[in-house]
Amino acid sequence: MPDTEAILAELARLSSADLPTRGGRTLAYVHDPGLPGLDDLATAAHAAFARVNALDMTVFPSVVQLENDVVSFAARLLGGDAATRGSFTSGGTESILLAVKAARDHARAVRGVTEPELVVPDTAHVAFRKAARYLGLRLVTVPTDPVSCTPDPADLAAALTDRTALVAVSAPSYAHGVLDPVAETAAAAAERGVWCHVDACVGGMVLPFLRRLGRDLPDFDLSVPGVCSLSVDLHKYGFADKGASVVLYRDAELRRHQYFASAEWPGYPVVNPTAQGSRSAGPLAAAWAVVRRLGEEGYTGLVATAVRATEEIAAGVGAVPGLRVVGSPVATLLCVASEEADPLHVADEMRARGWFVQPQLSFGAHRRNLHLTVTPATAPQVPALLADLAESVRAAAALPSPNPDPALAAAVAGLDADALSAEELAQVMASIGVDPEKGALPSRMAPLLALLDAAPLPLRERFLTEFVGLLFSGSGA
Protein backbone atom coordinates (compact mmCIF):
# COMPACT_ATOMS: atom_id res chain seq x y z
CA MET A 1 0.00 0.00 0.00
CA PRO A 2 1.56 3.37 -1.05
CA ASP A 3 2.10 5.85 1.75
CA THR A 4 0.77 9.39 1.82
CA GLU A 5 3.96 10.96 0.55
CA ALA A 6 4.16 8.60 -2.42
CA ILE A 7 0.55 9.27 -3.43
CA LEU A 8 1.00 13.04 -3.21
CA ALA A 9 4.25 12.81 -5.17
CA GLU A 10 2.44 10.94 -7.93
CA LEU A 11 -0.24 13.62 -8.06
CA ALA A 12 2.47 16.25 -8.34
CA ARG A 13 4.05 14.34 -11.20
CA LEU A 14 0.74 14.05 -13.04
CA SER A 15 0.03 17.77 -12.66
CA SER A 16 3.48 18.81 -13.84
CA ALA A 17 2.34 18.86 -17.46
CA ASP A 18 -0.71 21.02 -16.69
CA LEU A 19 -0.83 24.72 -17.40
CA PRO A 20 -0.44 26.84 -14.26
CA THR A 21 -3.65 27.86 -12.53
CA ARG A 22 -1.92 30.73 -10.75
CA GLY A 23 0.39 33.47 -11.97
CA GLY A 24 -1.75 35.16 -14.61
CA ARG A 25 -0.29 33.38 -17.67
CA THR A 26 -3.24 31.06 -18.37
CA LEU A 27 -5.83 33.36 -19.94
CA ALA A 28 -8.80 30.98 -19.99
CA TYR A 29 -10.42 28.41 -17.68
CA VAL A 30 -8.90 29.76 -14.44
CA HIS A 31 -9.44 32.97 -12.47
CA ASP A 32 -6.58 34.11 -10.30
CA PRO A 33 -7.17 36.97 -7.83
CA GLY A 34 -3.47 37.22 -7.11
CA LEU A 35 -4.24 37.59 -3.40
CA PRO A 36 -1.98 35.77 -0.91
CA GLY A 37 -3.89 33.62 1.55
CA LEU A 38 -7.19 33.43 -0.33
CA ASP A 39 -6.49 29.97 -1.75
CA ASP A 40 -5.54 28.71 1.72
CA LEU A 41 -8.82 29.99 3.13
CA ALA A 42 -10.86 28.36 0.37
CA THR A 43 -8.98 25.07 0.76
CA ALA A 44 -9.53 25.00 4.53
CA ALA A 45 -13.23 25.82 4.19
CA HIS A 46 -13.66 23.19 1.48
CA ALA A 47 -11.93 20.57 3.61
CA ALA A 48 -14.11 21.39 6.62
CA PHE A 49 -17.30 20.63 4.63
CA ALA A 50 -16.02 18.14 2.03
CA ARG A 51 -17.89 15.24 3.61
CA VAL A 52 -21.11 17.12 4.34
CA ASN A 53 -23.77 15.87 1.91
CA ALA A 54 -25.95 18.71 0.65
CA LEU A 55 -28.55 16.18 -0.53
CA ASP A 56 -30.53 16.45 2.71
CA MET A 57 -30.49 19.82 4.43
CA THR A 58 -32.59 18.45 7.30
CA VAL A 59 -29.62 16.29 8.28
CA PHE A 60 -27.05 19.01 7.55
CA PRO A 61 -28.75 22.35 8.35
CA SER A 62 -25.44 24.20 7.90
CA VAL A 63 -26.03 23.85 4.15
CA VAL A 64 -29.17 25.99 4.41
CA GLN A 65 -27.36 28.87 6.12
CA LEU A 66 -24.36 28.75 3.80
CA GLU A 67 -26.48 28.68 0.65
CA ASN A 68 -28.87 31.39 1.85
CA ASP A 69 -25.92 33.65 2.64
CA VAL A 70 -24.28 33.12 -0.75
CA VAL A 71 -27.50 33.46 -2.73
CA SER A 72 -28.49 36.59 -0.81
CA PHE A 73 -25.13 38.19 -1.57
CA ALA A 74 -25.56 37.50 -5.29
CA ALA A 75 -29.16 38.72 -5.28
CA ARG A 76 -28.29 42.03 -3.58
CA LEU A 77 -25.50 42.54 -6.06
CA LEU A 78 -27.56 41.78 -9.14
CA GLY A 79 -30.76 43.76 -8.76
CA GLY A 80 -32.72 41.33 -6.64
CA ASP A 81 -35.22 42.24 -3.92
CA ALA A 82 -36.98 40.55 -1.02
CA ALA A 83 -38.85 38.26 -3.41
CA THR A 84 -35.74 37.00 -5.21
CA ARG A 85 -34.84 33.35 -4.77
CA GLY A 86 -31.96 31.24 -6.04
CA SER A 87 -29.88 28.10 -5.79
CA PHE A 88 -26.21 27.26 -5.48
CA THR A 89 -25.02 25.04 -8.35
CA SER A 90 -21.86 23.35 -9.62
CA GLY A 91 -21.17 25.88 -12.37
CA GLY A 92 -22.55 28.02 -15.15
CA THR A 93 -23.62 25.05 -17.26
CA GLU A 94 -25.77 23.64 -14.45
CA SER A 95 -27.18 27.09 -13.67
CA ILE A 96 -28.17 27.51 -17.31
CA LEU A 97 -29.59 23.98 -17.54
CA LEU A 98 -31.74 24.66 -14.50
CA ALA A 99 -32.99 28.01 -15.80
CA VAL A 100 -33.92 26.44 -19.13
CA LYS A 101 -35.65 23.56 -17.34
CA ALA A 102 -37.59 25.98 -15.15
CA ALA A 103 -38.60 28.10 -18.15
CA ARG A 104 -39.66 25.06 -20.14
CA ASP A 105 -41.81 23.71 -17.32
CA HIS A 106 -43.23 27.18 -16.63
CA ALA A 107 -44.19 27.58 -20.30
CA ARG A 108 -45.83 24.17 -20.23
CA ALA A 109 -47.77 24.84 -17.02
CA VAL A 110 -48.75 28.48 -17.54
CA ARG A 111 -48.98 28.91 -21.32
CA GLY A 112 -49.65 25.34 -22.46
CA VAL A 113 -46.52 25.16 -24.63
CA THR A 114 -45.98 21.57 -25.78
CA GLU A 115 -43.23 22.09 -28.40
CA PRO A 116 -40.95 24.55 -26.60
CA GLU A 117 -38.31 26.69 -28.29
CA LEU A 118 -35.22 28.41 -26.93
CA VAL A 119 -34.17 31.65 -28.63
CA VAL A 120 -30.57 32.83 -28.33
CA PRO A 121 -28.05 34.94 -30.25
CA ASP A 122 -25.53 32.79 -32.10
CA THR A 123 -22.90 34.01 -29.61
CA ALA A 124 -24.76 32.57 -26.61
CA HIS A 125 -22.72 30.16 -24.52
CA VAL A 126 -22.79 26.59 -25.79
CA ALA A 127 -24.42 25.56 -22.50
CA PHE A 128 -27.73 26.74 -23.99
CA ARG A 129 -27.27 24.34 -26.89
CA LYS A 130 -26.51 21.60 -24.39
CA ALA A 131 -29.65 22.48 -22.45
CA ALA A 132 -31.76 22.40 -25.60
CA ARG A 133 -30.47 18.94 -26.50
CA TYR A 134 -30.81 17.56 -22.98
CA LEU A 135 -34.24 19.02 -22.32
CA GLY A 136 -35.90 18.66 -25.72
CA LEU A 137 -36.25 22.27 -26.81
CA ARG A 138 -35.89 23.43 -30.40
CA LEU A 139 -33.02 25.91 -30.59
CA VAL A 140 -33.59 29.12 -32.55
CA THR A 141 -30.42 31.15 -33.13
CA VAL A 142 -30.33 34.79 -34.16
CA PRO A 143 -27.25 35.96 -36.11
CA THR A 144 -25.04 38.64 -34.58
CA ASP A 145 -23.29 41.51 -36.32
CA PRO A 146 -19.70 40.54 -37.21
CA VAL A 147 -18.40 43.98 -36.13
CA SER A 148 -20.27 44.63 -32.88
CA CYS A 149 -20.76 40.88 -32.15
CA THR A 150 -24.20 41.68 -30.72
CA PRO A 151 -27.68 40.77 -31.97
CA ASP A 152 -30.19 43.30 -33.21
CA PRO A 153 -32.90 43.40 -30.52
CA ALA A 154 -35.51 43.63 -33.26
CA ASP A 155 -34.27 40.30 -34.65
CA LEU A 156 -34.51 38.69 -31.22
CA ALA A 157 -38.03 40.06 -30.77
CA ALA A 158 -39.04 38.78 -34.21
CA ALA A 159 -37.81 35.29 -33.32
CA LEU A 160 -40.24 35.04 -30.37
CA THR A 161 -43.35 32.95 -31.03
CA ASP A 162 -46.10 31.29 -29.06
CA ARG A 163 -43.76 28.30 -28.69
CA THR A 164 -40.87 30.26 -27.18
CA ALA A 165 -40.23 29.06 -23.64
CA LEU A 166 -37.16 31.21 -23.06
CA VAL A 167 -35.02 33.89 -24.69
CA ALA A 168 -31.49 34.36 -23.35
CA VAL A 169 -28.93 37.15 -23.65
CA SER A 170 -25.40 37.53 -22.30
CA ALA A 171 -23.85 40.06 -19.93
CA PRO A 172 -21.28 39.84 -21.43
CA SER A 173 -20.86 37.09 -24.02
CA TYR A 174 -17.92 34.77 -23.41
CA ALA A 175 -16.53 34.70 -26.94
CA HIS A 176 -16.23 38.46 -27.45
CA GLY A 177 -16.83 40.07 -24.06
CA VAL A 178 -19.61 42.34 -25.34
CA LEU A 179 -22.93 43.16 -23.70
CA ASP A 180 -26.11 41.99 -25.41
CA PRO A 181 -29.24 44.23 -25.51
CA VAL A 182 -30.74 43.02 -22.24
CA ALA A 183 -33.39 45.68 -21.58
CA GLU A 184 -34.78 45.66 -25.12
CA THR A 185 -34.92 41.87 -25.24
CA ALA A 186 -36.54 41.58 -21.81
CA ALA A 187 -39.20 44.13 -22.80
CA ALA A 188 -40.04 42.23 -25.97
CA ALA A 189 -40.19 38.97 -24.01
CA ALA A 190 -42.46 40.44 -21.34
CA GLU A 191 -44.83 41.72 -23.99
CA ARG A 192 -45.32 38.16 -25.24
CA GLY A 193 -45.28 36.53 -21.81
CA VAL A 194 -41.93 34.83 -22.55
CA TRP A 195 -39.28 34.07 -19.93
CA CYS A 196 -36.05 36.08 -20.33
CA HIS A 197 -32.77 34.80 -18.89
CA VAL A 198 -29.53 36.76 -18.51
CA ASP A 199 -26.33 34.76 -18.70
CA ALA A 200 -24.08 36.78 -16.39
CA CYS A 201 -21.90 33.79 -15.53
CA VAL A 202 -18.78 35.77 -16.42
CA GLY A 203 -19.92 39.33 -15.84
CA GLY A 204 -22.12 39.01 -12.78
CA MET A 205 -19.21 39.44 -10.40
CA VAL A 206 -17.59 42.19 -12.49
CA LEU A 207 -20.19 44.58 -13.90
CA PRO A 208 -21.74 45.65 -10.55
CA PHE A 209 -18.30 46.63 -9.25
CA LEU A 210 -17.52 48.48 -12.46
CA ARG A 211 -20.53 50.64 -11.67
CA ARG A 212 -19.13 51.27 -8.19
CA LEU A 213 -15.98 52.46 -9.93
CA GLY A 214 -18.00 54.98 -11.94
CA ARG A 215 -18.38 53.11 -15.21
CA ASP A 216 -21.63 53.88 -17.05
CA LEU A 217 -23.22 50.60 -18.10
CA PRO A 218 -26.65 49.68 -19.47
CA ASP A 219 -28.94 47.89 -17.04
CA PHE A 220 -28.47 44.14 -17.34
CA ASP A 221 -29.63 42.37 -14.17
CA LEU A 222 -32.81 41.47 -12.26
CA SER A 223 -33.60 45.17 -11.89
CA VAL A 224 -34.56 45.14 -15.59
CA PRO A 225 -38.32 44.63 -16.06
CA GLY A 226 -38.97 41.34 -17.82
CA VAL A 227 -35.81 39.55 -16.68
CA CYS A 228 -36.99 36.35 -14.99
CA SER A 229 -33.71 34.63 -14.13
CA LEU A 230 -29.97 35.21 -14.12
CA SER A 231 -26.89 33.00 -13.78
CA VAL A 232 -23.64 34.14 -12.13
CA ASP A 233 -20.52 32.10 -11.46
CA LEU A 234 -18.68 32.52 -8.19
CA HIS A 235 -15.80 30.39 -9.46
CA LYS A 236 -14.99 32.94 -12.14
CA TYR A 237 -14.64 36.52 -10.93
CA GLY A 238 -15.97 35.58 -7.52
CA PHE A 239 -12.59 33.79 -7.19
CA ALA A 240 -14.07 30.77 -5.43
CA ASP A 241 -12.83 27.27 -6.21
CA LYS A 242 -14.40 25.51 -9.18
CA GLY A 243 -17.84 24.12 -8.61
CA ALA A 244 -19.53 27.36 -7.51
CA SER A 245 -22.34 29.17 -9.32
CA VAL A 246 -25.72 30.69 -8.51
CA VAL A 247 -28.93 30.80 -10.50
CA LEU A 248 -31.35 33.54 -9.42
CA TYR A 249 -35.10 33.86 -10.05
CA ARG A 250 -37.34 36.87 -9.74
CA ASP A 251 -39.48 35.01 -7.18
CA ALA A 252 -40.14 31.67 -5.54
CA GLU A 253 -42.93 30.78 -7.96
CA LEU A 254 -40.51 30.83 -10.90
CA ARG A 255 -37.85 28.90 -9.00
CA ARG A 256 -40.37 26.19 -8.10
CA HIS A 257 -40.22 24.93 -11.69
CA GLN A 258 -36.51 24.21 -11.25
CA TYR A 259 -37.05 21.67 -8.46
CA PHE A 260 -37.46 17.93 -8.83
CA ALA A 261 -39.54 16.11 -6.21
CA SER A 262 -40.76 12.54 -6.13
CA ALA A 263 -42.40 10.23 -3.61
CA GLU A 264 -43.03 7.51 -6.21
CA TRP A 265 -40.82 4.85 -4.71
CA PRO A 266 -40.52 2.97 -1.39
CA GLY A 267 -37.41 4.84 -0.26
CA TYR A 268 -37.02 8.25 1.35
CA PRO A 269 -38.99 11.16 -0.18
CA VAL A 270 -36.74 13.00 -2.64
CA VAL A 271 -36.54 16.69 -3.46
CA ASN A 272 -33.56 17.95 -5.47
CA PRO A 273 -33.25 21.71 -5.88
CA THR A 274 -30.53 21.22 -8.53
CA ALA A 275 -29.58 18.62 -11.13
CA GLN A 276 -27.42 16.79 -8.62
CA GLY A 277 -28.49 14.44 -5.85
CA SER A 278 -25.65 13.80 -3.44
CA ARG A 279 -23.14 16.63 -3.58
CA SER A 280 -20.37 17.74 -1.34
CA ALA A 281 -20.91 20.98 0.56
CA GLY A 282 -17.18 21.68 0.16
CA PRO A 283 -17.50 24.01 -2.86
CA LEU A 284 -20.36 25.87 -1.16
CA ALA A 285 -18.35 26.40 2.02
CA ALA A 286 -15.31 27.52 0.03
CA ALA A 287 -17.40 30.03 -1.92
CA TRP A 288 -19.04 31.28 1.28
CA ALA A 289 -15.63 31.81 2.88
CA VAL A 290 -14.20 33.69 -0.11
CA VAL A 291 -17.27 35.93 -0.40
CA ARG A 292 -17.10 36.67 3.33
CA ARG A 293 -13.39 37.48 3.12
CA LEU A 294 -13.59 39.77 0.09
CA GLY A 295 -16.96 41.49 0.43
CA GLU A 296 -18.00 44.27 -1.91
CA GLU A 297 -14.96 46.40 -1.11
CA GLY A 298 -12.52 43.59 -1.85
CA TYR A 299 -14.25 42.69 -5.10
CA THR A 300 -14.27 46.31 -6.20
CA GLY A 301 -10.50 46.49 -5.82
CA LEU A 302 -9.92 43.24 -7.69
CA VAL A 303 -12.21 44.27 -10.53
CA ALA A 304 -10.42 47.62 -10.80
CA THR A 305 -7.09 45.80 -11.16
CA ALA A 306 -8.40 43.33 -13.74
CA VAL A 307 -10.12 46.01 -15.81
CA ARG A 308 -7.04 48.23 -15.87
CA ALA A 309 -5.02 45.25 -17.06
CA THR A 310 -7.62 44.50 -19.74
CA GLU A 311 -7.52 48.07 -20.99
CA GLU A 312 -3.72 48.04 -21.07
CA ILE A 313 -3.75 44.81 -23.08
CA ALA A 314 -6.37 46.20 -25.48
CA ALA A 315 -4.25 49.30 -26.06
CA GLY A 316 -1.15 47.16 -26.56
CA VAL A 317 -2.93 44.87 -28.99
CA GLY A 318 -3.81 47.90 -31.08
CA ALA A 319 -0.11 48.75 -31.32
CA VAL A 320 0.86 45.35 -32.74
CA PRO A 321 0.70 45.32 -36.56
CA GLY A 322 -2.01 42.97 -37.75
CA LEU A 323 -3.81 42.67 -34.40
CA ARG A 324 -7.06 44.30 -33.31
CA VAL A 325 -9.64 43.92 -30.58
CA VAL A 326 -12.98 42.61 -31.85
CA GLY A 327 -16.15 44.45 -30.83
CA SER A 328 -16.41 46.72 -27.81
CA PRO A 329 -15.64 44.63 -24.72
CA VAL A 330 -17.15 45.97 -21.51
CA ALA A 331 -15.21 44.20 -18.79
CA THR A 332 -12.36 41.67 -18.53
CA LEU A 333 -12.72 39.52 -21.64
CA LEU A 334 -10.97 40.31 -24.91
CA CYS A 335 -11.38 38.86 -28.37
CA VAL A 336 -8.36 39.52 -30.60
CA ALA A 337 -8.29 39.16 -34.38
CA SER A 338 -5.03 38.52 -36.17
CA GLU A 339 -4.91 39.69 -39.77
CA GLU A 340 -1.26 39.07 -40.70
CA ALA A 341 -0.74 35.75 -38.93
CA ASP A 342 -3.12 32.86 -38.42
CA PRO A 343 -4.58 33.05 -34.90
CA LEU A 344 -4.11 29.30 -34.49
CA HIS A 345 -0.37 29.66 -35.06
CA VAL A 346 -0.26 32.65 -32.72
CA ALA A 347 -1.85 30.54 -29.96
CA ASP A 348 0.79 27.84 -30.45
CA GLU A 349 3.59 30.41 -30.42
CA MET A 350 2.24 31.95 -27.22
CA ARG A 351 2.05 28.52 -25.59
CA ALA A 352 5.68 27.89 -26.52
CA ARG A 353 6.48 31.12 -24.62
CA GLY A 354 4.61 30.02 -21.51
CA TRP A 355 1.18 31.59 -22.14
CA PHE A 356 -2.23 30.15 -22.90
CA VAL A 357 -4.53 32.26 -25.05
CA GLN A 358 -7.63 30.45 -26.26
CA PRO A 359 -8.09 29.92 -30.00
CA GLN A 360 -11.67 30.26 -31.24
CA LEU A 361 -12.79 28.81 -34.57
CA SER A 362 -14.85 30.52 -37.23
CA PHE A 363 -18.62 30.43 -36.96
CA GLY A 364 -21.06 32.11 -39.31
CA ALA A 365 -19.81 35.66 -39.94
CA HIS A 366 -17.20 35.41 -37.18
CA ARG A 367 -13.63 34.52 -38.16
CA ARG A 368 -10.93 32.71 -36.22
CA ASN A 369 -9.65 34.69 -33.28
CA LEU A 370 -8.06 34.53 -29.85
CA HIS A 371 -9.86 34.83 -26.52
CA LEU A 372 -8.24 36.27 -23.39
CA THR A 373 -9.74 36.07 -19.91
CA VAL A 374 -7.88 38.71 -17.89
CA THR A 375 -7.64 38.42 -14.10
CA PRO A 376 -5.98 40.57 -11.43
CA ALA A 377 -2.96 38.26 -11.45
CA THR A 378 -2.32 39.16 -15.09
CA ALA A 379 -1.84 42.86 -14.24
CA PRO A 380 1.89 42.71 -13.40
CA GLN A 381 2.43 40.45 -16.42
CA VAL A 382 1.00 42.83 -19.04
CA PRO A 383 4.33 44.15 -20.42
CA ALA A 384 5.69 40.61 -20.80
CA LEU A 385 2.40 39.41 -22.31
CA LEU A 386 2.39 42.15 -24.95
CA ALA A 387 6.06 41.62 -25.80
CA ASP A 388 5.55 37.87 -26.26
CA LEU A 389 2.33 38.45 -28.21
CA ALA A 390 4.12 40.74 -30.68
CA GLU A 391 6.94 38.22 -31.03
CA SER A 392 4.44 35.38 -31.47
CA VAL A 393 2.65 37.24 -34.26
CA ARG A 394 5.94 37.81 -36.09
CA ALA A 395 6.90 34.15 -35.72
CA ALA A 396 3.45 32.92 -36.76
CA ALA A 397 3.43 35.15 -39.84
CA ALA A 398 6.52 33.33 -41.12
CA LEU A 399 4.87 29.90 -40.87
CA PRO A 400 2.95 28.18 -43.66
CA SER A 401 -0.82 28.11 -43.37
CA PRO A 402 -2.11 25.52 -40.89
CA ASN A 403 -5.09 24.84 -43.15
CA PRO A 404 -5.36 21.25 -44.42
CA ASP A 405 -4.40 20.34 -47.93
CA PRO A 406 -7.35 21.18 -50.24
CA ALA A 407 -7.73 17.53 -51.20
CA LEU A 408 -7.91 16.49 -47.55
CA ALA A 409 -10.34 19.32 -46.78
CA ALA A 410 -12.57 18.24 -49.66
CA ALA A 411 -12.42 14.61 -48.56
CA VAL A 412 -13.31 15.55 -45.00
CA ALA A 413 -16.17 17.77 -46.15
CA GLY A 414 -17.60 14.79 -48.02
CA LEU A 415 -17.73 12.53 -44.98
CA ASP A 416 -21.06 11.70 -43.37
CA ALA A 417 -20.86 12.56 -39.66
CA ASP A 418 -23.47 9.96 -38.77
CA ALA A 419 -21.86 7.16 -40.79
CA LEU A 420 -18.19 7.95 -40.11
CA SER A 421 -16.31 4.68 -39.58
CA ALA A 422 -13.51 4.07 -37.12
CA GLU A 423 -11.10 3.55 -40.03
CA GLU A 424 -12.02 6.87 -41.67
CA LEU A 425 -11.69 8.65 -38.36
CA ALA A 426 -8.27 7.08 -37.74
CA GLN A 427 -7.07 8.18 -41.17
CA VAL A 428 -8.18 11.77 -40.59
CA MET A 429 -6.61 11.84 -37.13
CA ALA A 430 -3.31 10.43 -38.43
CA SER A 431 -3.19 13.05 -41.19
CA ILE A 432 -2.89 15.81 -38.59
CA GLY A 433 -0.48 14.10 -36.25
CA VAL A 434 -2.87 12.48 -33.78
CA ASP A 435 -2.12 8.87 -32.86
CA PRO A 436 -5.53 7.16 -32.93
CA GLU A 437 -4.24 4.35 -30.70
CA LYS A 438 -2.96 6.63 -27.95
CA GLY A 439 -5.13 9.70 -28.48
CA ALA A 440 -1.99 11.75 -27.94
CA LEU A 441 -2.14 15.46 -28.62
CA PRO A 442 0.11 16.84 -31.36
CA SER A 443 2.90 19.17 -30.25
CA ARG A 444 1.17 22.04 -32.06
CA MET A 445 -2.61 22.35 -32.09
CA ALA A 446 -2.96 24.60 -35.16
CA PRO A 447 -3.26 21.77 -37.76
CA LEU A 448 -5.86 19.94 -35.68
CA LEU A 449 -7.90 23.10 -35.07
CA ALA A 450 -7.59 24.17 -38.71
CA LEU A 451 -8.99 20.81 -39.80
CA LEU A 452 -11.89 21.25 -37.41
CA ASP A 453 -12.42 24.75 -38.79
CA ALA A 454 -12.59 23.40 -42.35
CA ALA A 455 -15.08 20.67 -41.46
CA PRO A 456 -18.86 21.11 -41.57
CA LEU A 457 -20.34 21.64 -38.11
CA PRO A 458 -21.74 18.08 -37.69
CA LEU A 459 -18.29 16.69 -38.49
CA ARG A 460 -16.62 19.08 -36.07
CA GLU A 461 -18.78 17.73 -33.32
CA ARG A 462 -18.20 14.10 -34.34
CA PHE A 463 -14.43 14.61 -34.45
CA LEU A 464 -14.47 16.26 -31.04
CA THR A 465 -16.58 13.48 -29.55
CA GLU A 466 -14.39 10.71 -30.92
CA PHE A 467 -11.13 12.44 -30.02
CA VAL A 468 -12.16 13.00 -26.42
CA GLY A 469 -13.36 9.41 -26.33
CA LEU A 470 -9.84 8.35 -27.30
CA LEU A 471 -8.36 10.40 -24.48
CA PHE A 472 -10.77 9.05 -21.85
CA SER A 473 -10.40 5.41 -22.72
CA GLY A 474 -10.53 4.15 -19.14
CA SER A 475 -7.33 2.21 -19.81
CA GLY A 476 -4.96 3.99 -17.45
CA ALA A 477 -1.96 2.23 -15.99
TrEMBL record:
Source superkingdom: Bacteria
Keywords: Lyase, Pyridoxal phosphate
One GO process term, biological-process aspect: carboxylic acid metabolic process
Residue(s) carrying N6-(pyridoxal phosphate)lysine: 236
Membrane recorded as keyword: no
Example of a GO MF term: aromatic-L-amino-acid decarboxylase activity
InterPro entries per UniProt: GrpII_AminoAcid_Decarb (IPR050477), PyrdxlP-dep_de-COase (IPR002129), PyrdxlP-dep_Trfase (IPR015424), PyrdxlP-dep_Trfase_major (IPR015421), PyrdxlP-dep_Trfase_small (IPR015422)
A Pfam cross-reference name: Pyridoxal_deC
Cofactor(s) recorded in Swiss-Prot or TrEMBL: pyridoxal 5'-phosphate
Record-linked PANTHER family: PTHR42735, SPHINGOSINE-1-PHOSPHATE LYASE 1
Family the UniProt entry places it in: Belongs to the group II decarboxylase family. Sphingosine-1-phosphate lyase subfamily.
Protein name: Pyridoxal-dependent decarboxylase
Organism: Thermobifida cellulosilytica TB100
